[in-house]
Design a protein that fits this description.
- The protein is α/β, with parallel strands linked by helices and about 280 residues long.
- The protein has a single domain, classed as Alkaline Phosphatase, subunit A, CATH 3.40.720.
- Helix content is about 30%, strand content about 15%.
- It has nine helices and nine strands.
- The strands form two sheets. It has a seven-stranded mixed β-sheet.
- The chain starts with a strand and ends with a strand.
């Protein structure tokens, strides 16, 4: 019998944030690993994952092609389908396309609007849904459906670990940062301001380090909140379900003058956690 597959992505969750969190339910799946994302923001990272490439290890002294080979071979155990290799994903290089060809029902429930159903990532999915709220994993769990006669694949994009790190029902007084964490924030106004601004004028104040540390701590607490929902998740999943829990990229909380992710080259924005295993 083929295994169901649930691929869960905690959006923006740093490796060290997850490592510092108390997450015993998630860790019932297996030992957490430090891995590395192929990209520093949501859309390209999810796109690579949906090509069938997991966040990668970083071994020295080996050919890069061997890393890919070992990664794709893992799908045989995850899905309980023998003899899977990289060639099995050609020519589409698409995990949902490969699974559809294997008889799977393919689903995506996403929290981040940047992954909405009109984007290119929505290919080869039978069901693709942008959730009403960006931060409600509990509602996502309620949407999971399984058919004993047909194996299912779900991509779940979870937003509680993404800025502004709010849980359902919580408010916040944080600055609104548009686009890729501020890259496009009032761009025209900023250009005009730079031509008029006096030397002693103050810029945005959301780079206060005390606030940055508080945001990182809130991300950690939200990981623990999400972990608390895994009991409900496990009850919903059939026993023959393989679960992957990871992140699409990290987040900078003021380190070396960076906040956020996207157009950032820094090790913390590429370090992600990775946990996988059969449903406990």
């Amino acid at each position: 019998m083929k295994n169901n597959l649930i691929f869960i992505v905690f959006d923006s969750c740093r490796f060290d944030t997850f490592a510092e969190a108390h997450a015993p339910r998630i860790l019932r799946l297996g030992e957490p690993e430090k891995r590395y994302s192929y990209a520093s923001w949501t859309v390209p990272s999810h796109t690579v994952y949906m090509m069938g490439a997991s966040p990668h290890t970083n071994p020295r002294g080996v050919f890069a092609s061997e890393v890919y080979k070992k990664d794709f071979v893992r799908w045989a155990d995850r899905l309980n389908i023998p003899d899977i290799s990289f060639k099995g994903f050609v020519p589409h290089l698409s995990l949902p396309a490969f699974l559809k060809a294997q008889g799977y029902q393919t689903n995506a429930l996403v929290s981040m609007p940047v992954l909405n159903q009109t984007t290119n990532i929505n290919r080869h999915f039978d069901r693709y849904q942008l959730m009403k709220s960006h931060n409600d994993f509990n509602a996502i769990i309620d949407e999971l459906e399984f058919d004993s006669a047909t194996p299912s694949f779900y991509l779940l994009n979870i937003g509680e670990t993404h800025y502004p790190y709010t849980l359902p029902g919580e408010g916040n007084d944080l600055p609104i940062i548009h686009g890729m964490h501020g890259v496009f924030k009032h761009m025209d106004d900023l250009l005009l301001k730079e031509t008029q601004e006096k030397p002693d004028a103050k810029g945005d104040d959301f780079f206060n380090m005390d606030q940055m540390l508080a945001l990182k701590e809130k991300q950690r607490k939200n990981v623990e909140y999400l972990d608390g929902l895994f009991d409900k998740l496990y009850q919903k999943l059939p026993s023959n379900t393989h679960v992957i829990v990871t992140s699409d990229h990290g987040e900078l909380f003021g380190e070396d003058g960076f906040f956020g992710h996207g157009p950032v080259i820094h090790e913390k924005v590429f370090e992600v956690f990775f946990v996988e295993g059969r449903r406990p």
